[in-house]
Design goal:
With 373 residues, the protein is of the alpha/beta class. It has a domain at 1-74. 38% of the residues lie in helices and 12% in strands. It contains 14 helices and twelve strands. The protein has helices at residues 3-15, 21-32, 36-50, 56-76, 104-114, 135-138, 161-166, 186-194, 213-219, 240-247, 276-279, 296-308, 328-335, 356-365; strands at 86-90, 93-100, 119-123, 148-150, 176-178, 203-205, 230-232, 257-259, 287-289, 318-320, 346-348, 370-372. It is globular, with a radius of gyration of 22 Å.
């Protein structure tokens, strides 16, 4: 195959980013032309993506891929290194990039022509004075290809949310939006949740925006036209009735990944005094991280009971219970849980004062899991 064939395969990958066939064909071409490490890397990441998330097979393939990436990333990412602040590979190619808001308008076209980019983090740096305006960035034609948008390092100001609103038609493909560490405009968020814009939106990250509890409790129940599957509420302050109301919303019934971590220095977490077995949306939950919530042994027992009430395997595979005040009774509940109902691939119970004996018991009960004690 000639270099023309190489370019055609790369163009097919960029044009059809969800398809694996062009990627595997490119891997074959690389191996046939002496670039065996890159070809193997592509195959490993594709295999990891096809394995069940967090499973031993996925971890094995991804670990092997990361070893290759550590040795070769300088070469494999060299063609975009001057245009990005960072990058992540997925299924063998750069899918996520972090970019400088001040230079992205200039770099967007060649960057998106070089890799099948679908995930974008936009950064603004304090040394850029005045900060670059966002209108031109939001209206770039390349934004129509972005499905994951991360504003956690953008430093959005309240009066700038209007620019984002104006550009919503270009963001119709957005499935995941991160506004962590952002002072989100409350009126704007209400309109986003309840309005028709961003129709594909399935994931939201509000971590460390403490003041959003009230608006989320009010507006999520009105967003029944949405189907949110990923939500990060870490360090968001809720009263007990507010978090119960928010998590009972129809738009969260298909929740697959919920992160609601808490710093104990801020006092008891919003879940501390609730029956988490009845509060959390368990039906489709694959990932749950409630580090620091202080649910204790009773919370773990309630969770295990909720998961084992099912007639089939619970979908939960990743469970974060670090620094939650659990003790031996919680370990007992996990170890004695129904093996026909609960199967974990990751269990984090660090900072709970558990012993090596507890760790051994948990590893014996969940032999496929990474158990962190």
């Amino acid at each position: 195959m000639s270099m023309t064939d190489r370019d055609a395969l790369l163009a097919a990958i960029i044009e059809n980013p969800e398809e694996d066939t062009p990627r595997l064909m490119f891997a074959d071409w690389l191996q046939e032309n002496g670039a065996t490490a890159r070809g193997e890397f592509i195959r490993l990441q594709v295999e990891a993506a096809h394995a069940e998330p967090f499973s031993p097979q996925a971890r094995t393939h991804e670990a092997a891929a990361q070893k290759l990436l550590q040795r070769h990333v300088g070469v494999w990412a060299d063609h975009i290194s001057e245009r990005v602040c960072g990058q992540r590979f997925a299924r063998g190619f750069v899918e996520h990039v972090s970019v400088n808001a001040a230079t992205f308008a200039r770099d967007a076209a060649p960057l998106f022509a070089a890799e099948p980019i679908r995930s974008l983090q936009v950064e603004r740096f304090t040394y850029t004075t005045p900060p670059p305006p966002l209108d031109a960035l939001f209206n770039l034609p390349q934004m129509t290809r972005v499905t994951r948008l991360d504003f956690s390092k953008l430093g959005l100001q309240p009066d700038e949310f209007g620019s984002f609103t104006f550009a919503w038609p270009r963001f119709s493909a957005i499935t995941d939006l991160s506004l962590r560490n952002t002072a989100v405009s409350v009126p704007w968020l209400g309109k986003l949740l309840t309005g028709p814009e961003l129709p594909a939106l399935a994931g939201l990250d509000f971590a460390h925006d403490a003041h959003l509890g009230r608006v989320l409790a009010t507006e999520l129940p009105k967003a029944s036209h949405r189907r949110l599957t990923t939500l990060d509420l870490s360090a968001v302050v809720f009263a007990s009735d507010q978090i119960q109301k928010a998590l009972a919303s129809r738009c969260l019934r298909a929740m697959e990944e919920l992160r609601f971590t808490w710093h104990k220095s801020a006092g008891p977490g919003p879940l501390t005094y609730l029956n988490v077995g009845w509060t959390l949306p368990w039906d489709y939950l694959r990932v749950l991280d409630i580090e620091g919530q202080g649910v204790g042994d009773e919370g773990v027992r309630e969770s295990v009971a909720a998961l084992c009430r099912r007639k089939d395997f619970a979908p939960l595979r990743w469970l974060g219970l670090a620094n939650t005040g659990l003790r031996a009774d919680a370990v007992h509940a996990l170890v004695n849980s129904d093996k026909k109902r609960l199967r974990l691939y990751h269990l984090d119970v660090r900072n709970n004062g558990l012993s090596a004996t507890h760790k051994a018991a948990l590893e014996d009960r969940f032999p496929e899991a990474e158990v962190l004690v």
